[in-house]
From TrEMBL:
The keyword Iron-sulfur applies. The lineage of its organism: Bacteria, Bacillati, Actinomycetota, Actinomycetes, Kitasatosporales. Residues 223-323 form the FAD-binding FR-type domain. Its main location: membrane. Signal peptide: none annotated. It comes from the Bacteria. Its cofactor is FAD. The chain crosses the membrane at residues 25-45, 51-72, 93-114, 134-156, 168-186, 198-221. This is Ferredoxin reductase family protein. Keywords: 2Fe-2S, FAD, Flavoprotein, Iron, Iron-sulfur, Membrane, Metal-binding, Oxidoreductase, Transmembrane, Transmembrane helix. Gene3D superfamilies: Nucleotide-binding domain of ferredoxin-NADP reductase (FNR) module (3.40.50.80), Translation factors (2.40.30.10). It is a multi-pass membrane protein. The keyword Nuclease does not apply. It is found in: Membrane.
Length: 446
């Protein structure tokens, strides 16, 4: 029996939560750029222009490195408003900016000192590494960042298992420590005054503290508090399984319909694997449920998990929630197993909703009976759209036929990337305003 919650949506804010969070991040970065520039000017300029440019590039590179840490700290306030997928995407692009600024720092400094000493650039770099404290650590840090940047490039990332890529990426923290100690040892800008030194330590303390809090302290504390265990494993079809999880004080877990966790099932052969699965039912304070497609060796083992298995869950994560509603009525579009957060959202949403469920064939419509029962109880319209990919059954004309007033509704979209891209194109063609379109690309979450 499906429990229907009649959560009343909060009044629409004058400024959207996502805009507030983005403005906050941009503001933090811009303010620190100004502060770093002021301290740089106060410290005075070198006589060699290349050295001046190199020092400035190094300072901005170090600032970008600290900002990168903030982007991947998984702080709940930012994550609920922006979403892990977008924060991860920004982290990636900031990473390329970091790579170029640090390369610029190394090149300008080396050529600048070589110009002054009449040494060739290679010998000058070797000499700096041997004679100037902290420079060798900086060279090692740059090498690590080059390797990490290389494996993060799209062509390389697609060829690596997530666990391999993640392990290599952990060396970023080694590079951070080496770069920071280099700045402390050799950086004239932040040793020129007590105010500059204090600022530098506070900046890095906040960045590293955010990572420690969001990535380690908060997940450990929540899992110790809630003591999650599997209470049931329910096959939904030949290749889809639902896992029910119980624990202590789940009414105090700040999870919402539409969010996901990174789940680790603590068995001998799975404890090291973390998989992102959305909640497939709205949290009720007593249990959690995820529903996953068992495609591949890792997820295929899910159906063999035993009742009582301990679970370590990182989260909740994601901005795919009713927090971002701008209209009183909604359209929920699901493709395949992307129905899981859509089904949970329908349970929480208040107001009229139209649900469109796109599948290859009717037998692929997992959770359909639940969805139909829930739609009936909520007074929502439910459309099951099945058939081959071509012709596109969610083309603009088809969407307009199913939901004539789609431009006046919020649209929540979840499904395979090709289907999502096609629907997003249809929504743009129909003129649905961008603030009314809500989606997340969960693959970026790992």
């Amino acid at each position: 029996m499906t429990t229907v919650q009649t959560t009343v949506p909060p009044p629409t804010a004058a400024v959207r939560p996502k805009v507030v969070a983005r403005a906050g991040l941009y503001g933090v970065l811009a303010l620190n750029v100004v502060v770093v520039t002021v301290f740089f000017i106060q410290a005075g300029f070198a006589s060699n222009t290349l050295i001046v440019l190199g020092r400035l590039a190094g300072l901005y590179g170090a600032l970008l490195m600290a900002f990168q840490l903030l982007l991947v700290a998984r702080l709940p306030w930012f994550d609920r408003r922006i979403g892990m997928d977008r924060l991860t995407s920004w982290h990636r692009w900031v990473g390329f900016g970091l790579l170029f600024t640090l390369l610029g720092h190394a090149v300008f400094i080396t050529f600048g000192y070589a110009q002054s000493s009449s040494m060739d650039p290679v010998n000058q770099l070797v000499d700096l590494g041997q004679t100037v404290e902290g420079v060798f650590r900086a060279i090692v840090a740059l090498g690590l960042i080059l390797v990490i940047g290389g494996v993060s490039a799209r062509f390389a990332r697609r060829r690596l298992a997530y666990e391999t890529w993640h392990f290599i990426h952990l060396y970023t923290y080694v590079a951070v420590v080496l770069a920071f100690t280099h700045q402390v040892a050799a950086g004239t800008t932040f040793t020129s005054s007590s105010a500059a030194t204090t600022y530098w330590y506070v900046l890095w303390g906040v960045a590293l503290g955010a990572v420690l809090l969001g990535r380690f302290v908060l997940p450990l504390w929540r899992n110790l508090r809630h003591q999650l265990r599997i209470s049931a494993v329910v096959p939904e079809s030949d290749n889809v399984v639902s896992i029910h999880i119980t624990g202590r004080d789940l009414d105090r877990l700040p999870a919402r319909a539409g969010q996901f966790f990174l789940w680790r099932f603590l068995t001998r052969d799975r404890w090291w694997q973390a998989n992102p699965f959305s909640l497939s039912a709205a949290p009720d304070g007593r249990s959690l449920r995820l529903t996953a497609k068992t495609a591949g060796d890792g997820t295929a083992a899910l159906r063999h998990l035993k009742v009582g298995t301990r679970v370590f869950a990182e989260g909740p994560y994601g901005a795919f929630t009713a927090m971002h509603r701008t209209r009183s009525e909604a359209v929920l579009i699901a493709g395949g197993v992307g129905v899981t957060p859509i089904r949970a959202l329908l349970e929480e949403l208040h107001g009229h909703a139209v649900v469109i469920y796109r599948v290859g064939s009717d037998r692929d419509a997992v959770l359909y009976e639940e969805l139909r029962e829930l739609a009936h109880a909520k007074g929502a319209e439910l459309h099951l759209v099945s058939g081959p990919v071509s012709p596109d059954k969610l083309a603009p004309a088809e969407l307009a036929r199913l939901v004539p007033d789609i431009g006046d509704r919020d649209v929540f979209l979840c499904g395979p990337p090709p289907m999502m891209n096609a629907v997003l194109g249809s929504l743009r063609e129909l003129g649905v305003p961008k603030p009314q379109i809500h989606f997340e690309r969960f693959s970026l979450a790992g």
